[in-house]
């Protein structure tokens, strides 16, 4: 298992490598093709680090570990896998609860810097968790819209049918798809309103 020094080094090396890999993914022509696999590899590495949790690591390592978990959860949310995002955040909360009696409480004046930083990491994770809950509601509404409506004719003329079908039948959606669905529904409402006026 990793020692204290090795854990810190592993996290720093992972952060540097992650930045380089993400840059290459985002510069590619099909970033969403590579991004899920990258998240799985990132998750596996963090899981390996998490297996060393029985050893008393310095608090700063716990802070960085929680920040990495939160960043990973945000990546899962980005591609629409809210369940995986919430599961990842759960691991972050487990770490903070083991090291702080009330992780989400206000910072006490006598707390050391590491405890304050860990408490701040817990708050960031909670904020993302609330975002995930709201995002899941948006996903559910979007899937309902996709199920009840067809694409407007003028949209179908500019989008291939295969592309529209792909968006409708995808196992998960992304924020862009939610925005697209809302725009399509607004356009449909305007079109219906115009027909009624006539």
UniProtKB/TrEMBL annotation:
<protein>
    <submittedName>
        <fullName>Uncharacterized protein</fullName>
    </submittedName>
</protein>
């Amino acid at each position: 298992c990793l020692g204290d020094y090795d854990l810190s080094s592993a996290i720093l090396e992972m952060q540097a490598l992650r930045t380089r890999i993400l840059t290459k993914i985002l510069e590619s022509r099909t970033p969403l093709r590579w991004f899920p696999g990258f998240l799985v590899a990132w998750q596996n590495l963090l899981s390996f680090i998490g297996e060393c949790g029985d050893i008393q690591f310095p608090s700063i390592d716990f802070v960085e570990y929680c920040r990495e978990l939160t960043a990973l959860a945000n990546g899962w949310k980005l591609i629409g896998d809210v369940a995986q995002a919430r599961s990842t955040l759960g691991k972050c909360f487990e770490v903070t609860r083991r090291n702080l009696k009330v992780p989400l409480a206000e910072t006490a004046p006598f707390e050391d810097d590491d405890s304050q930083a860990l408490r701040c990491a817990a708050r960031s994770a909670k904020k993302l968790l609330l975002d995930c809950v709201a995002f899941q509601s948006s996903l559910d509404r979007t899937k309902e819209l996709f199920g009840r409506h067809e694409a407007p004719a003028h949209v179908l003329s500019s989008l291939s049918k295969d592309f529209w079908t792909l968006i409708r039948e995808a196992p998960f959606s992304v924020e862009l798809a939610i925005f697209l669905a809302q725009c399509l529904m607004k356009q449909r409402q305007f079109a219906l309103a115009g027909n009624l006026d006539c």
